[in-house]
Amino acid sequence: MTPSNEKRLLSILNASEIRVTPRDLAIKLALESCITNREARRVLKRLVTDGEIAYSYDFGATHVEPSFSRPVQITDHFVITPWSSRKDGDQTLEIVIAPGISFGSGRHPTTRLCLEAIDQTLLTTNGPAFPRRAADVGTGSGVLALALVRAGCDSCLALDTDLNCVSETQRNVALNRLQHRIEVTNELLDISHGPFDLVCANLRYPTLKQLSQLFYEITQPQALVILSGVRTWELNDLTDTYTHLGFTCTWTRNEKGWSAAVFKK
Asked: What gap in Å lies between CA 261 and CA 64, rounded to an integer?
């Protein structure tokens, strides 16, 4: 077993657009590295033992996923971790997430793209100069709401109709001691919740298109709308929908067949 084989296995896993079984992962590693299947399985076992990857069990099937047993650097500024490890002088923005049912660890491309958009829009370039009240629509684990507040938003309303997600978000908000700045609710978003200076939504394309008019109505002039959860071939149509309403697309990025975009009102 060599470090290069371990790196190659991690590369295969991270590049996969679908969830992969241990058997399929070992076979692919063996083919790409010209090693035996037995040697490939040893590499897999070593990475599990070291905590780099982990097995997950869903609906009777076993899959391999990157482990969430240690901090994960998602963007230049954001680190997601299962425990607090921040040190004095640390310039990263730490988001503590308890392992749960949602894409809370930031491993899924749509979550990662949203975090990159928040980083680029609010931390890397000059964000809005006014006090920022944000909304995270379909909050899931609350990771994006936490990121928005960590990035400088004064407050955030985190909405999700799934009560399990609401409970999970409340737990994560408490872990980060941000209950005074993040409100969690299972209400459906409507005009009464506004106005907002920033709206973030990691949802599928049909829902983002359906919500476009409401997003326009609940946002202030110059507000930002960060959208993710669309396939790359859906992005042009989504952009047309939002620009027709009066938004301007200021940033886009693609990863593993998924896309995210930032719009300014």
From this structure: 29
